[in-house]
Amino acid sequence: MRAAIVNAFGGGFDIEDIDIARPIGREVLVDVKASGLCHSDLHFAVNDFGMAPPMVLGHEVSGIVAAVGPEVSEFTVGDHVVGSLVQFCGACLECLSGRTVSCLRPEATLRADGAPPRLSRRGEPILAAMGTAGFAEQALIHENQLVCIDPAVPFPEASVLGCGTITGAGAVLNAAGVRAGEAVAVIGLGGVGLNVVSGARLVGASRIIGIDLNDEKLELARAFGVTDGINAGEGDVVARVRELTGGGVDHAFEVIGRKETAEQAIAMLRVGGTASLIGIHGAGGMVEFDANGLLREQKKVNGVYMGSANIKHDIPLYASLFLQGRLNLSDLIASEIAIDEINEAYEELGSGRTARTVITRF
Ligand code: APR
Ligand code: ZN
Ligand code: ZN
């Protein structure tokens, strides 16, 4: 099958023919119909986050079940499914407490050491990164990392549910606990940030201030519920937020992964406000804040990972809100491409001009 392989960090993606194994145990073989280009995969393709080439990345996957392993109980051939990089065992203390993103045995969804690899090239093993490896014609995924969804959801929209939406909307609904009537700011209106905006609209935020360097993103964000846009390249962002809200926001979300914008998120809070940090920083990244200011103004800094999602609950919920017309997914999809165009599409993403590009031809 055709797949986009990372053969060296920073070397881009090579389209090659590789082999995929038959499903064993609780594995499901999925015919991939759409695979989203999340910014995190670009980080993983360039820097060492513990996943080593040769590897197949891609963790926003939707498709149709083509075959199931002998122990699979939840899926049958023909089901429409969404995959997610959240690897959870379902039995450890964190899983049983509902914190599946912090599972103590995430390797439970991968093949055991020494077992034949899921992916290989002329006998040489290739890492199926994150247990999803979605940048390929087919993907072999443990059933815990898959969710069945209503076939009425188109595949591109479905793929985004697997990361962008659970991370962005989940940060609002599960992690920050934004209440109706509160004022929200979102810094970084990419594929994840626009879903934070959607979450804020769903819970009834009084004001949703979108902040980005790109005017097209600010315009696009209105279709998700942004009430006020600020171009971060023009003047003092924090002063502008204070002016718009008469003192600051109740919740600020940083969805880029930069020191400067994380510090802005903390600085733009009103008394008692919460800054939720979502964007992934470079290895060893540090953030500074005025300690006395933080305690005097009773601010909170909230680290959010994968929107504290429980995928089996959250993904069907967002799919249903989409089908009811209450969650905008379609405007996230900037373009559909062939897998051969992945390098150009990632260059475009790096420029900050597009929301989500989705591979739909393999
Ligand atoms: N101020 C405001 N906006 C900025 C700035 C800045 N200094 N720098 C970049 N941006 C904007 C870009 O213009 C773009 O719209 O941030 C947005 C980032 O969006 P994407 O590149 O689409 O990234 P996304 O996939 O949304 O992921 C954002 O969340 O999950 C993590 O790893 C992911 O760290 C990444 C972050
Ligand atoms: Zn992602
Ligand atoms: Zn677990």
Bound molecules: adenosine-5-diphosphoribose, zinc ion
- Poorly predicted tracts of residues: none
Kindly identify the CATH topology of the largest domain: Quinone Oxidoreductase, Chain A, domain 1
Instruction: Tell me the helix content.
Output: 25-40%
Along the chain, the helix and strand elements come as EEEEHEEEHEEEEHEHEHEHEHEHEHEHE
Structural class: alpha/beta
- Principal-axes geometry comes out as globular
User: Which value, in Å, is the CA radius of gyration?
Assistant: 20 Å
For the record, give the distance between the C-alpha atoms at the N and C termini, rounded to a whole number: 9 Å
The overall number of domains is: 2
Instruction: Name the CATH class of the largest domain.
Output: Alpha Beta
Number of helices, counting only DSSP H or I runs of 4 residues or more: 10
Oligomer: single chain
Mean residue pLDDT: 96
Report the sheet-strand fraction. 25-35%
The CATH architecture of the largest domain is Alpha-Beta Complex
CATH superfamily of the largest domain: Medium-chain alcohol dehydrogenases, catalytic domain
Major β-sheet profile: 7 strands, mixed
How many runs of DSSP E, i.e. beta strands? 19
Explain this structure.
Its cofactor is Zn(2+). Residues 10-359 form the Enoyl reductase (ER) domain. This is Zn-dependent alcohol dehydrogenase. It comes from Microbacterium lushaniae. The protein is an alpha/beta fold. α3 crosses α4 and α3 (155-176) crosses α9. The strands form 4 sheets. Strands 4, 6, 7, 10, 11, 18 and 19 form a 7-stranded mixed β-sheet that branches. It folds into 2 domains: 2-148 and 329-361, Alpha-Beta Complex (Quinone Oxidoreductase, Chain A, domain 1); 164-306, Rossmann fold, CATH 3.40.50. Helix content is 27%, strand content 27%. One zinc ion binds at residues 38, 40, 59, 163.
